[in-house]
Amino acid sequence: MPPVLGILLAGGQSRRMGGGDKFFQKLGGHTILEHVIQNAQLQVDQLIINANGDPARFDSYQLTVVPDSLEGHQGPLAGVLTGLEWASAHMPDAEWIVTFAADAPFFPKQLVNDLKNAVRDNAADIACASSGGRTHPVFAIWPVRLKDDLDHALRIEEIRKIDRWTGRYAVAHIDYPLEPMDPFFNVNRPEDLAEAVAYVRANLMKANHS
Fold it and tell me: How distant, in Å, are the alpha carbons of 13, 46, 127, 140, 198 from that of 20?
């Protein structure tokens, strides 16, 4: 299989957490971002971080940090475009990129394989995750061949909503169960962090008693 590039989308402004980078919050002794990186790195051939602002704040993670190629905070589609452009320039053999949210630490360990299989089995252009009747388009696989299409949609058509653009293509969805925890639970607010900490603590206790 051709190599797959993974992109951690870390461009949100974290307003509901009071500003700052919410993925640096601690969860079970490690930052949320550490949990995300550890899981994602096992599933892709190379992993980069898409984030604006000072890249030095990610130095300890030893990953390439790439800012949006579009100015201003244009939303997750800008991060997808940045990943497609980076893959085209630096991984010419890559046919696909997979995006991950940097604030969702519990996503499935087989996610990338599931997405690849969904594209193949459904003859789809794109595949994305869903749970509980909600789609999670930030957790998706995107073909590098759509780079120029997305560039035109963002720069010329000024499209910002993911589903408005993906509606032009064949999209496969993979539904995951919500139990014991929504795998795409993301930490947006202080109460979300408390819930995630409680879940990790409960799992650690369960592991210690098994």
Answer: 7, 26, 31, 25, 22
- The span from the CA of 36 to the CA of 100, in Å, is 8
- pLDDT, tens digit (0-9, with 9 covering 90-100), for 75-112: 899 999 999 999 999 999 999 999 999 999 999 999 99
Looking up residue 192, the CATH number of its domain turns out to be 3.90.550.10
Domain housing 202? 4-209
| Angle at which helices 76-90 and 147-155 cross, to 10° | 140
Contact 173, 137 (CB under 8 A): no
- pLDDT at position 8, please? 97
**What does the alpha-carbon distance between residue 164 and residue 158 come to, in Å, rounded to a whole number?**
11
Rounded-to-integer distance, Cα 166 and Cα 137, Å: 9
